[in-house]
Structures are given as structure tokens and as C-alpha cells.
């Protein structure tokens, strides 16, 4: 045996190797004492092998001392496991190693969290000792699956004719919708680089440089709060840009890549064969969100006409007093019981709402039940039932007001009803495109018009729309990909004309001098022959999270930060030394404790 540490890995040996002398190195997964015989499950990156040590073996004395997570070397002979003790769940489960020698490479202190099994532990312990957490089967498997998914994305992009480029990390600030991470410049006192929120300007400049089809597995940095599906600090996206394309061309290039990856790694779950396109306006009206989970079959409808002039004075009065008021119905198949309706009403009150009106139809009772049914009468309730396609045993809930103020709550009620009634399919990945986003939105805090999505998007109707339409009525060639209620990606056909860019930014309150200062590189590039172009950037972390069936993005990231954007393992962020601050010409002005 010539190699110092191993002749095979811990996942490699099979029954064909019986009788061979081998050497393995790895971590002690666990030690078991079976009436004199000692068993060690030895683990490395590749798998797990059972080691057996007889009391007569020279290795027995060393084996008695080893503990969980010690790193050891084992020399021994491969032998079949005794009949009845085979483990068919394990690739190495038909063999074991009869140890003749054990060498300890390193010892492990008492563990702050167990590696064996999948016990939940406090997040601060898991992140501080992430190197131990990553040894656990589930997390280790997630990270390996992540690598395979990225390999697949890269291969599929190259097969589609895209070229991989790397763009700068130290760059200028850009309004992507979140705070920048700033990096002070030592050689330019008082000036700062920004870490890129996305490679947006660079990928557009690549199109202007004539490269045609770009992609990158791009690191992005945003100083924003953590969520279950968003890491604070940094994340990765499959960044894509294409020249001479329409919106449909982007869809046709990206859709097979995502569908293929989800079919490859989705564990046999069905994947949408052709992603439907849903206008932003319709998505909000039907689902109460621009990130709809289409596995939930509930689709909201406008039923204002059935309440206008009705005996239900609360809704009828609101409708009469304000033409903007609408009543939306949330159909609830199989929800036709007073107990369920009362639970939904109590839930709505727990969300700070006055309640959730309802009607329901139950067996053995003619017509609808519930207070609203009595107020509006059988004719109107029957019309609602017909419009919503409901039957006996079903229910409908109602939300009234100005839709812009209540649509999010209505969407949450739709999700709650779908969850409670078990309507959400768990056996598929449902994709869709959300299209026709508004170009602008009203910023209530600053009392001004703002970009609602990507500021570099092409408005539908071009310069004419910008010059003649109410900004809040202008739509953009902007689109998102949504899967199972998770936004995977945002993208757009870009504005490639300097006159359109100038006007678009002017409407959002950016005069030309600000445009030149903030985006001078791209604004100048537009004036030297810019091709029509567009792109998108699916989030790699979210793709992996869905494919690993994990509820939190930290389960699929190697070294994540905590909710406060702290790296508990490495101790970041950390204080700078006085010398470092002097070199950077920075004086601290800390808040008082």
C-alpha cells in the first residue's frame, strides 16, 4: 500500500473487492459496541463504510479511544457482511472492513452540534460552526446538488449559443432598488466603489461591444434585510443578455434551460410544459400578487355588480360613494362549512382586518348560508355561485375597497384558503411569466413618480408613450419568471436609445446632468450604435432552494450570514484598525450607545 492516506474512498468499496487489503481515511461518523466487537461507521465526502474491529485485532486498543468526528486512517481487509446484517440502503452496505490497524490523524473536541442525524439546532450555533453543519448529510447533499445544478445551467446556456464572461466586482453605484455596499478608495480619498447589485450596465455594454449572447453565474451584492428566500449581503444569479431580440426571443431561449434543469433535478415532479404569460394587472386581480403560486387553483373574480344596490349596506354604500371601489370574491371549493368560514374570518381579524365576509352552500339546505346571503338574497347569491363555478359544499369570501389597498390581503386570503383546504398541489413545479409591468409607480413618501422595476427598460410605445401618456399608465417590456409562488427572475427588453433614456429618467426626476454623472458610460455608449437587446437573471440560490425542497435559502448556501447580515463563523463585519482608517482617509462618526 503506497498512498499515505487511502487506497479507496469511503463510498467506493463493493462486494467485488472482498479479500483485498485496503486503506481508508475519514471521519468517525459513530462508534457502536456490540458485545465485544466494535463497529465504526467511517465517513468521507464520497460515502460511508462500516469498519469492524475484533478484540483480538491490533487495532482494537486504538479503536476503543476514538470518538465521533475524529479523523482516522484504517488499514484492513474487505469482507462480506454476515448474512442478515447487510444494508441495502447503503452503496457499501454488502461489505465491511476488518481493521488491522487504526491511525489517528486528528482528534475532535466535544461537538457543539451533532453531525450524525438531522436534529434541528439554533441558527447561531449552526452558523458559528458551519464547517460542522456542512458535514451533515442533508446540507452536504444540498451543496453538492447546487454544484450539479450550476454545471447543468452552464452547459445548457452554452448549448444555446451563449458565451460566458466575467464582469467587474468593484464598480460604480447603480439604482437597482436596494442599498449598495460601498468600498472606500485608498488612492482616491473621499471616493467609493460599489459592489454590483447586478452586472446590469456591464452586460448591456457587452451587447454594445458586439458580443451578442452573454451569460455569467454572477455574484450580486445588496445591503437589504434577510428573508427566507433572500440572503442578506450576497447572492448568485444566472445573468443573461441577448442582442437583436424581442421579448418572445428571450422567453424562447430561457424557458428550455429552466424547464430542463427542473426536469433533471426535480425528483420526477411534473414541470410546466409551456410557461403561460400573465399580465401583471391580471396576476394582481386573479391572485393578489405578482408572484402567484399556480399550484393553488383558486382564482379571484370581480363580483362588484352583485353587491351594487344590494341589501348588504356595508359593501353597497362603499360602491355608491366611490367609483374606484370593487368587491372581489375568493372562491373556496370544499370550504362550505360554518366552522371553516369562521376560522377564515378569525384569521382575517388576526391580520388587522375587520373580518372576511362569506357565503357558503351546504348539503341539505336550499340556497346559500351566512349573514351576507341573507342580506343580498337568493337571486344574487345564485348569480355569484354561477359566476364562480361553485357548487354545494363550497364557499366564497369577499374583500371590498379600492383594489390597490386590499389586493395583497386578498392574495394572502387566497393562499390561506388553499392551504387550509389542501388545494395546493405538491407534485409539480408550476411556472409562469409575469409580463406588462408598469414602467412607473407613485412614491408616496417622496410624492413623486419613480421607476417601478428596472430603470433601463424599454417603455411599450417608446418615446411617443413617454411624451404623451400619463406615466402611471405606461407599461414596459419587463417580465418576471415565477415558480410555485417564488420569483426566480426579473428581466426586460432594454431601452437602447439615448433620447428615450433621457426622457425616461427625466420623468423619474433625474435630469440629464444626473444621468451623465450616474450612468455616463452607458448613456455615451447608446450614442455610438446600440443594438436592440434584452435579458434576464434567474436567481441561482432560489432555483436550488426549490429543487432541494428547502424552505430557507440558508440551507443551500455554503457560508450564509444570519438575519442581521453577520458572518458568525468569520466574525464579519469587523472593526477596522486605526491604520486602515487613516490609509482610507476615513474618520468614524458612530451613533451614541
Shape: globular
Largest sheet: 8 strands, mixed
Using DSSP, what is the number of strands?
A: 23
Quaternary organisation of the protein chains: single chain
- Residue windows where pLDDT falls under 50 for at least 5 positions: none
The structural class is: alpha+beta
Mean of residue pLDDT? 94
Helical fraction equals: 25-40%
Taking the alpha carbons of the first and last residues, their distance comes to: 64 Å
Q: Count up the helices.
A: 17
Q: If you compute it from the alpha carbons, what radius of gyration comes out, rounded to the nearest whole angstrom?
A: 30 Å
Major sheet strand order? 6-9-10-23-22-21-18-12
Note the beta-strand portion.
15-25%
Produce a short descriptive summary.
The chain contains 17 helices and 23 strands. It is α+β, with helices and mostly antiparallel strands.
